[in-house]
Amino acid sequence: MKNVTLIPGDGIGPEISQSVQKIISAAGVEINWDVQSAGADVAQKEGTPLPQRVIDSIKKNKVALKAPVTTPIGKGFRSVNVALRKELDLYANIRPCKNIDGIKTPFDGVNLVVVRENTEDLYAGIERQIDADTAESIKIITRKASLRIAKYAFDYAKNNNRKTVHAVTKANICKLTDGLFLECAREIAQQYPDIEYKEILVDNLCMQLVQNPQKFDVLVLPNLYGDIVSDLTAGLIGGLGVAQGANIGEDCAVFEPVHGSAPDIKGQNKANPTALLLCAINMLRHIGETAGADRIEKALYSVLAQGRVLTGDLGGSASTDEFTDEIIKQL
Ligand code: NAI
Predict the structure, then answer these.
(1) Is pLDDT of 77 > 80?
(2) With a 6 A CB cut-off, is 74 part of the ligand 1 pocket?
(3) Whether the CB of 254 sits within 6 Å of ligand 1
(4) Going by CA atoms, what residue is nearest to atom 41 of ligand 1?
């Protein structure tokens, strides 16, 4: 039996985690879940929202499924998500965006992947108050991290039969930082002559993504642009409830949805577990449980395509439990 760390998170996290555990178990895949709590409640009890035991568990198991954790805005502790990515050096954040049958969106034929650098940029958290009316944040871009993420994007393209990689920056304004990111992407691109390499400014990309998203394939971006653009691309395929993600490092992988802890619908049995389930399917493939992953994926896509039992975010009226039971029925 495989050991997998599970971080149930907070907000809707525990509800959708339970749904996913139930579905995986019903599919006959045996996982030994090493459940590790993190977040605001933990901070009160243990003095930190991300205790060392959570990191140790992931380092030991090498793989984790993580539901969202609330981050206080403008004050309080540093994001658990950012800290975890940094601590485990999960340098690549991968967010595939592909249309799902049964989920109506303004566009058909979207099939792109956002590859986001996950460890630096403005997320390094180097900020200071200069005086009462001025604050400063430092954007860090290094050659090492930029080369590494560019290589990941091109390898991903090569291994997944993708044709084009766009490097996305604002190098016309951030000439040194984004300029360095571009320089690294160009260097790596030369090693992959079979993959087309293109560059685009992030503002132009946003405009084109909401006009003609089908023309994009693999996007590689520094951290902040990657964060924003991947929410936009999640919107293209039906919203946060169906947008999956993975954080990959040399040693460990943490699979987590794009969405947050949705405190507005917490505890109401309304949350859509699809995004976390898609992450879990990827996680199962990562640990070699391919047959179980395929079975769950088929059942999930079938329920979504039929459109009879859908959660509120997808225009339906089913509860989290009803949606979960329907997937289990179709396994
Ligand atoms: P959010 O993603 O939690 O919610 C945005 C909107 O989408 C809300 O209306 C919510 O109800 C809806 N939504 C999100 N996931 C859904 C789901 N699975 N099913 C149905 N509806 C869903 O974003 P928000 O409100 O900006 O952030 C809330 C908290 O989550 C913040 O503390 C934020 O820092 C944290 N967060 C955590 C992340 C993580 O743990 N990886 C990622 C993003 C945000």
Answers:
(1) no
(2) no
(3) no
(4) 68
Which domains does the chain possess? 1-94+240-331 (3.40.718.10), 106-236 (3.40.718.10)
What is the DSSP secondary-structure string of 12-50? THHHHHHHHHHHHHHTT--EEEEE---SHHHHHHHSSSS
Strand partners, 254: 64, 247
Structure tokens at 226: 């990657």
Q: Rounded distance, CA 319 to CA 97, Å?
A: 25
Q: Are strands 63-66 and 2-7 parallel, antiparallel or unpaired?
A: parallel
For residue 8 and ligand 1, the question of a CB distance below 6 A is answered with no
Asked whether the beta carbons of 304 and 103 are under 8 A apart, the reply is yes
Helical (H) or strand (E) element with 41: helix 40-46
pLDDT tens-place string over residues 279-323: 999 999 999 999 999 999 999 999 999 999 999 999 999 999 999
pLDDT at res. 145: 97
Stated length of the chain: 331
